[in-house]
Amino acid sequence: MNETTTRLSIKGMTCSHCVRAAKKALEGIPGVQTADVDLDSNSATVVHDPAVTSKAFAAALAEEGFTLA
C-alpha cells in the first residue's frame, strides 16, 4: 500500500491527556497507520493511506475538542 506522511497543526491541546486523545482519534481513522502527536509543537505527524483527507483528520480531532490550525 502507498503511504503518505502528513504533518498537522492542532489547536486546543494543553496536556498529556490531550496528546493521548488526539493520537487515539487520529489512529481510529480507517487508513491511518500511525500518528505521532507532540504537545510542545502542537502538531501530529500522521502516516496514512493517500485516500484519507484533511476533512477526516479535522472531524476526528473535532470529536475530541481540537481543531486543525
Structure description:
It is a single chain. The protein is an alpha+beta fold and about 70 residues long. It has one domain (about 5-69): Alpha-Beta Plaits, CATH 3.30.70. About 30% of the residues lie in helices and about 35% in strands. The chain is built from two helices and four strands, in the order βαββαβ. It has a four-stranded antiparallel sheet, with helices on one face. β2 and β3 form a beta hairpin. The termini are far apart. The mean pLDDT is about 95.
- The sequence of SSEs as H and E is EHEEHE
Strand content range: 25-35%
User: How many E-type strands?
Assistant: 4
Mean pLDDT: 97
Low-confidence runs: none
Helix content: 25-40%
Strand order of the largest sheet: 2-3-1-4
Contiguous helical run count = 2
Structural class computed from helices and strand pairing: alpha+beta
Secondary structure elements and pairings:
Blueprint: E1 4-11, H1 16-27, E2 32-38, E3 43-48, H2 54-62, E4 67-68
Antiparallel strand pairs: 1-3, 1-4, 2-3
